[in-house]
Design goal:
It is a single chain. With about 130 residues, this protein is an alpha+beta fold. The protein contains four helices and four strands; from the N terminus they run ββααβαβα. A two-stranded antiparallel ribbon has the order 1-2. The protein has a two-stranded antiparallel ribbon with strand order 3-4. Strand 1 and strand 2 form a beta hairpin. The chain is elongated.
């Protein structure tokens, strides 16, 4: 930042240090390093292994079929034949509670878009 200071001998240009210092780096992982972030979460949150079981795959499929491969988010209702774009979402977040995790009545089908945008932002809001 440069400012002009006037004096009796004319004007001088003087450099003034910025008042706001450089912000410290954000905590966490760099954007795009999802593999490392996921590896860390797998190591620190044991319940994440439940998603990699055959039992979970069977339960997920049962929920997708029950909901006719349609997003259950109010106002969406998208029917998605590509099951990789569907999420078996926990209505009440389980946060490691096995009873909530495996409860079929606590699961709903969401399209990935609704899950990643709407549902995740709702959950982040309630965590605070």
């Amino acid at each position: 930042m440069i400012s002009r200071l006037s004096s009796s001998h004319g004007s001088k240009i003087k450099t003034i240090k910025p008042l706001v210092s450089k912000l410290p780096p954000r905590l966490g992982y760099q954007p795009g390093n999802e593999r490392e972030r996921s590896r860390h979460r797998d190591a620190t949150q044991g319940w994440r292994a439940w998603y990699k079981t055959a039992r979970w795959q069977r339960l997920r499929w049962k929920v997708l079929v029950r909901d006719l491969f349609a997003c259950q988010m109010t106002g969406c209702g998208r029917v998605e034949p590509d099951t990789s774009k569907l999420v078996a979402d926990h209505i009440t977040p389980h946060r490691g509670d096995a009873t909530l995790f495996w409860d079929e009545t606590n699961l709903q089908t969401l399209c990935a878009d609704c899950h990643n945008r709407i549902k995740q932002s709702q959950e982040r809001r309630y965590e605070r």
